[in-house]
C-alpha cells in the first residue's frame, strides 16, 4: 500500500508532463518498471513491475563504465592511458564529443565524457580499448551481465543507441533490460568508489587540444566550483552538463540534514521508443540507496518518481 501511494503521489506531481506524454509498450506512465534497494545489504525496499523488459538507452553506459573500472582495477590499463580513436567511433550520434579516428583522449576523460555528457562516441572508444573491437566488447558486456544474474538483459552496443538502418550501425536490435537487472548491476557498480569521481560531476569543459580532447571538471557534488585553465593551442569547445537533473538542478536536488547534497550518481537514459530512464543513488547518515526507474513517459515523470523513491529508501 505504501509503495502504491508513493507512485500515485509521484504521478500526480508530474501530472502536467503526463497529460501529453507519449506511451507505448516500452514507454509508459509512470514507467515500465521501478525498484529501490539498500546498497549495503541489497535488500529491496520497494518494487513495481521490476521484471518487465524496457529499453535502457544510455543507462547502458553504466555497464560500459563498470567494465572499464574492472579493467583498471585488474591492472589491464590505467585511467591515464591514452586511447586512440578508431573508425568505430563513427557508429554514433549526439550526444557525443565529436571524436575522429586517430584523435586521442585519456581513459579518464572518456569516462567523464560518457557519464556526464552521455557521449556515445566515448562509449565506443572505451569499449574498443577494453576488448580490442566493438563486437568483442559487446560480447564482454553480455558475459558480465550473465555473471551478475541479469537474465533478462541483452546488449547490442555499449551506448544504448537504437537500431536505425539509415545510420552506420551494425546492430539490429534495441538493448533490453529490466529494473531488477539494472539494480543487480548498480549494486556492484557502487562497490567501486572510483565511479563517483565521474557520476558526481555536474559540469565540465570539453577542451580541444592539438592531439584530441581533454576534460576539465568545473562543478561537482559537494565540491567548490573550478575554472578551466588552458595551455597553448587549447580551446574550450563546450561545457558538458550532466543529464542527471536531480543532482544538477537546484529545484530538484535532495539535501541531507547537514546541508550536504544527497545524490551523487549514477546514469540517465532516453530514446524516443523507450522513454526516460534513470539509475539514481545517494547517501544520508552513512546509508546509501539505489533506485532504478525504466521507461518513463517523460523526463519529468522519471525525475518525480526517482526522487521520491530515493528519499523514501534513505529513511526506510
Question: Which tags fit this structure?
Answer:
three-stranded antiparallel β-sheet; 10 helices; five-stranded antiparallel β-sheet; globular; alpha+beta; disordered N terminus; 316 residues; 10 strands
Characterise this structure.
- The chain is of the alpha+beta class.
- It contains 10 helices and 10 strands.
- It has helices spanning 2-13, 15-19, 61-73, 107-117, 120-131, 134-147, 179-189, 195-199, 245-248, 299-313; strands at 33-38, 44-48, 82-84, 104-106, 201-208, 213-220, 235-241, 263-271, 275-284, 287-296.
- The chain has a 5-stranded antiparallel beta sheet with strand order 2-1-10-9-8, with helices on both faces.
- α1 (2-13) packs antiparallel against α10.
- The longest helix is centred in the last third of the chain and has 15 residues, at 299-313.
- The chain is globular.
- The two termini are 15 Å apart.
- Mean pLDDT is 92; it is low at 1-20.
Amino acid at each position: 500500500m505504501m509503495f502504491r501511494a508513493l507512485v500515485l503521489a509521484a504521478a500526480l506531481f508530474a501530472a502536467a508532463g503526463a497529460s501529453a506524454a507519449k506511451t507505448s509498450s516500452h514507454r509508459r506512465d509512470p514507467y515500465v518498471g521501478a525498484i529501490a534497494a539498500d546498497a549495503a545489504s541489497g535488500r529491496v525496499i520497494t518494487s513495481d513491475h521490476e521484471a518487465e523488459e524496457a529499453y535502457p538507452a544510455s543507462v547502458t553506459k553504466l555497464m560500459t563504465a563498470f567494465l572499464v573500472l574492472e579493467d583498471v582495477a585488474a591492472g589491464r590499463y590505467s585511467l591515464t592511458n591514452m586511447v586512440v580513436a578508431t573508425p568505430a567511433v563513427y557508429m554514433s550520434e549526439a550526444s557525443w564529443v565529436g571524436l575522429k579516428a586517430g584523435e586521442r583522449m585519456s581513459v579518464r576523460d572518456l569516462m567523464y565524457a560518457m557519464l556526464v555528457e552521455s557521449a556515445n562516441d566515448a562509449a565506443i572508444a572505451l569499449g574498443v580499448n577494453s576488448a580490442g573491437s566493438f563486437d568483442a566488447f559487446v560480447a564482454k558486456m553480455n558475459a558480465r551481465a550473465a555473471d551478475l544474474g541479469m537474465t533478462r538483459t541483452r546488449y547490442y552496443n555499449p551506448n544504448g543507441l537504437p537500431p536505425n538502418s539509415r545510420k552506420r550501425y551494425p546492430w539490429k536490435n534495441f538493448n533490453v533490460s529490466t529494473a531488477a537487472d539494472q539494480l543487480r548491476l548498480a549494486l556492484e557498480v557502487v562497490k567501486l568508489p572510483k565511479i563517483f569521481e565521474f557520476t558526481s560531476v555536474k559540469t565540465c569543459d570539453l577542451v580541444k587540444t592539438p592531439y584530441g580532447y581533454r576534460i576539465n571538471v568545473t562543478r561537482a557534488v559537494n565540491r567548490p566550483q573550478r575554472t578551466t585553465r588552458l595551455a597553448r593551442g587549447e580551446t574550450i569547445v563546450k561545457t558538458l552538463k550532466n543529464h542527471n537533473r536531480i543532482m544538477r538542478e537546484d529545484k530538484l536536488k535532495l539535501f541531507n540534514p547537514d546541508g550536504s547534497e544527497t545524490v551523487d550518481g549514477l546514469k540517465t537514459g532516453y530514446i524516443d521508443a523507450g522513454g526516460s530512464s534513470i539509475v539514481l543513488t545517494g547517501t544520508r547518515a552513512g546509508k546509501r540507496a539505489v533506485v532504478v526507474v525504466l521507461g518513463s513517459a517523460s523526463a519529468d515523470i522519471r525525475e518525480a518518481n526517482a526522487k521520491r523513491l530515493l528519499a523514501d529508501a534513505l529513511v526506510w
